[in-house]
Amino acid sequence: MRNRHAFSEMSPMAFLNPDFFKRNRTRQLFLIWFFLTPSLVIFTLYRIIPLFWNGVLSFQFWSPYQESQFAGFAHYEEMFFYDDVFWKVLWNTILLMASAPIGIALALLIAVLVNTPIRGRNVYRTIVFMSYPVMTVAVGIIWQWLYNEKVGLINYVLISLGILQKGIPFLGNFTLALPCVILASIWQVIGFYMIILLGGLQNIDPSLYEVAAVDGANAWNRFWKITLPLLKPLIFLCFVIGIINSFTAFDLIFVMTQGGPGHATDLLITRIYNVAFKLSKFDYAAAMTVVNFLFFLGLTLLANKLAGGEAGAVEMER
Amino acid sequence: MKNFRKIFLRVAVVLLATGLFIPPAAHAQKKISVLTWNIPYFTDGFNKWVAEFNKKYPDIQIERLDKKGTEWSTFYQTQVVAGTAPDIIDIQGGLWLEYASKGGLVDLTPYLKKDAEYTKQFYPEILRGWVYEGKQYGVPFYISKTLLFYNKNMFKEAGIKDPPKNFQEILDYARKMTKGEKSGFMTLNFDWLYWPIFAMNGVQLLTPDLKKAAFNTPEAVKLVDTLGKATQDGVINKISWTGRWVEPNDAFAAGTVGMFHAHAPAFLWFKSKAPWVTEETVGATHLPGGWSTPNSHSILISKSCKYPDAAWDFIKIATTGEGAYLLGVGTNNLTGNIPANRRLLEYFAKTLPVAVPVLKTQLEHLDKLCGNWPVAKDAEIKEAFYPELQNALLGRKSAKDALKEAENKVNRVLQKR
Question: ipTM of the predicted structure?
């Protein structure tokens, strides 16, 4: 039975009782609060208060040099009705988010392959996973060089094979720049997805496949009817991680393209940075942050609902 | 549990006792911080400034900070918000306008008025570059403006004898030199450095009162259309509109661009990448008409500076006499100081003769500076204008539509709060 009222014993008046600390339960609760308090203080100072302050800032005309004035919904009006760059970067963020299934599908294919009893499969697993621990900045620099028009490996190979006559400026091309960044992003996380899915694959009871094979199911049917349904929770987890990555891919964009050419690879998060620190419009950037937060919150709530509504639940002791 | 309580109480007492016996913070020393823009190698000269400064102010410590261009404004603004803004700042281009318009900088007009001997050492046209609403906020630190570099080898191959004398000749010569991987013309595009191309064709960005966009004219549409077609044909290298600093300089250093419109610091940068660059292979001249965009660095004082008079004395050391000379030698630039520049040109003639023709262009045609409007919303206007221009030049939109859209956006920036 969950005890939902455990913390009500810590009412302020309870401390006045001289026998307060003699009670075992009280001492336990005191210990819990004692260890939680520093983290809660830091969390409040660096997360809750800035979140609240950011919300307040989004309704002000603010400058570090002058007194602030109430702006009402001016920044939101500007954002939704006059700022076409906002809609462009929001769309780019959604595209990056929507690319997560591609990475998951590739990771699943690789996981299925390295789960088979092939020779050297541990080596393949290691090679595929090696991209994940690499710092995102390093990933950005590596892929920036790979895509380079003059000296990049990709152009070199394509020209050598006769596919191209001259190099393509991948990261300088309005159409190709974002897909190129997405590819770099997928390359970085595919190893992580693979490990998660591989763990799931190895937890599937082999007897299910044996029974299905006896019943005449071919490889595709076994994958579609057994493997995929049982991996659904993990695939969902990978998708949520992919969504989180799309909202926080600041470093990759900053290193590879700085949001260019012409906002073609700009995300909401990089746009917020540029508006705040390049255009000195902290108030407008705060409004964009609020929208970013609400959008992300909406997605998280949706994901939680699709997962059954129990994400993050903690079982209390009886 | 009883033992735990004892241990807990003992630890708490020890922590409390330690807190009581921490000695009070020593009296904070007077300090002036100086933030420079990407010149971390300039140390000897800076230390000499500090030594000179400390003769008059032995009780004030100078703290040196340096940030790369891409990090500078982020760093400065976070420091301003935190209340710890660097006292003296070296800024490139028009960033200072934003801070000046919001009262974030010290008005140096009284200091300059008080010291006529100091003031008259500077080129008046250059000094005017840091006036906003009648007040002087900065003094020149080191100067640069755009010029035209040309690849003499490519000129010779194309049968061209002399640099272009007008815009049409730029296009014609560029077209002659364009072949395969080679393109005839390229420009830098950050901080309005490409604007001389517009100025020489009679295009204005804003009305004289700086309140409305003035660039959406038939002449501008024709110019943008011409530039766009030349870019599509490869006559103007596309990097002109998509690259920032490294890519255009690399392209010229690779020897595949006939003419490069850039500011003076580009010379030493691409020269360091290209051993073929000598006085015989690369020429330097003005863009036809003498038009150029300044990209000079100025030195200013943050409003939060506690010792503005001392900060001003430090600035004077850095921008006159031996101090200015050391700056020029240490950064391979000319300064805004006339006597210092005479010495510097003699110095460079002996030590870096290949740079002298380039540096001389920086002191000529100072009446033809453009692309430096004293508008507080300079960064926002650039944000509104350039992406639309880029769309037209790269063939994503017609010149007419792009300039119309840019006009709407620029006017909105100028009208809103």
Answer: 0.81
